[in-house]
Amino acid sequence: MTTPDPKNLVPAEQEVQMERETGPWRDAWKNFRKNKIALVGSVIVFFFILLAIFGPWIAPEGINDQKLTERLKSPSSQYWFGTDDFGRDIFSRVILGARISLGVGFFSVIGSVIVGSALGIIAGYYGKWVDTIISRVFDIMLAFPSILLAIAVVSVLGPSLVNALIAIAIINIPNFGRLIRSKVLTVKQEEYITSARAIGMKDFRILISHILPNSLAPVIVAGTLAVASAIIEAAALGFLGLGAQAPAPEWGKMLADARNYLRNAPWTMIFPGVAIMLTVLGFNLMGDGLRDALDPKMKT
Amino acid sequence: MTKRKAVLEVKNLQTSFFTDDGVIPSVDYVDFEVREGEILGIVGESGSGKSVTSLSVMGLIPSPPGKITSGEILYNGTDISKYNDKKMRSIRGNEIAMIFQEPMTSLNPLFTIGSQMKEAVLLHKKGWSKKQAHARAVEMLKLVGLPRAEELMKDYPHQLSGGMRQRVMIAMALVCDPKVLIADEPTTALDVTIQAQILKLMKDLNTRLNTAIILITHDLGVVAETCERVVVMYAGKVVEEGPVEKIFTNPEHPYTKGLLASVPDMRFKKQSLYSIPGNVPKPGSIKEGCRFAARCSEVFGRCTVESPPLYQTAAEHKTRCFLYDTEEVANHDRAIVES
Fold first, then answer.
1. What is the ipTM score, two decimals?
2. Shortest CB distance from A197 goes to which of B60, B119, B124?
3. Fold entry, domain B6-338
4. Could you state, in order of their start, the residue ranges of all structural domains in chain B?
5. Residues above pLDDT 70, as percent of chain A
6. pLDDT higher than threshold 90 for residue A106
7. Alpha carbons A295 and A287: distance in angstroms, whole number
8. Chain B, 150-189: which have a CB under 8 Å from a chain A CB?
9. Could you give all domains of chain A from N- to C-terminal order, each with its CATH number?
10. Which residues of B touch A200 (CB under 8 A)?
């Protein structure tokens, strides 16, 4: 037997070190990074997030700088995306609209995730009549077409951006609730939950520190995808005049205002429409990538 | 040897499951005791009620549908079976701990070994600092023979082998010095060499820490190696109880005899292995008579009508079989003489 060459030992040692630096989340990130399309999606999303944050500093004009002499100008070097019927710069309005759309998307989803997860966890963990009540309420909510339900909620609360946000949050609650409930049902059968109980852990503690983290992966995926649909729903409500009110540069509202000029000034419609499409596309691609990365069945 | 004090006594325990098909008693009037610092083996086939018994002791029977319908579980003389959840939590882990069959799934995959160990320490040691908890966790990992304990604290469960995870589980169970450790098939999911190591570790910890261990298993080899006393269970009832040497050299109940006969003996090449004919009856399906009667080779008239009690056949030996009824034996002798 020859003595091992010390040079050969180094890579093995490194490998051990590298293997140490793994965790479920780190593995997911590794998988995600391999997925090029998902990365493209994330870049788009990241781009719009930057727009949303730094919009006021990027946009050349304000949201309501009307120049009536410059109405319905086609795209040019001065007005990149052209101007609308009040002579407002569409480029600036699209940029500033990112904050509204993404804001509605994020906050409505955060709201529905929090409420939906809480209800779903309670239903899934405690079961019995609690589960029956919560699940049936979800079923009833899901029986309505979501946009109809949103319109109903907004008509009760009155049309405004905040109310549109609340309405979108409410209609998404049952989706998350059912998702996390089904996940909790499987997680609570796991042996580590029984062993946590066997060392004397409280129900609440088990819920928070063991069941919740293990049920979160599908919620993250569904949440990303839900941001996309929330943005569309906000635009739809805006289009119907039930969401953001003039002069807010909400993309859906801009589409609605551009309806009359579709033939003469198509740019008034194209650019807000493209903005909606790109954001939604970005979130969908990213969500798909996250699903593949977090899905245990996809692990190689 | 003087008889040691009992730490845990299970008296007349009946645990039933309320299903759509009616009430099914999974554990039916089971009696046994665990003495200070001993290793008690509970043996039986699948479905004999071993696991339900241990979960009943821990108060972890999923309810509904399960419920302890009668009996007492005395820990140091106080009945814990009627404790509410809050009181029970102070017993779990602190006084009685439990480890499970599947080490692969007994640890939360999302957290490091260290954070789970520390959590277990801090659960019962209120007022301990994180540092103290860390030190205790490392100490326990070392105690169960895990190398490089400090580094292991930062590892995730999936980075450990099955044997290592079972050691972590044992360490976690023993973190608060419980008086009784219930091990539900702790070695079933491990390969044979690791099995031997884990059993050796448990035996070693038993002598060092004086923790009583209830070892639940279907493997008679495991019992022979580790236990001092054995309880044999069949279809929710204790059929035989006694010291391990007695059970192995002089089994009394036909079921125990059958079990021992089915252990393959490497010394002799046999054409076929012995197996007890039939299956364990479905719980609740046998209403009268001895539950083993249908599979028993020594069955006689009385067995199908009456349910036998536990007969004390020697100082520490009990058997649930009419063959050990002194009257029955006398009758039998008389019959032989008369014929």
1. 0.77
2. B60
3. Rossmann fold (3.40.50)
4. 6-338
5. 90
6. yes
7. 12
8. 151, 154-156, 159, 169, 172-173, 175
9. 44-62+78-298 (1.10.3720.10)
10. 88-94, 123-124
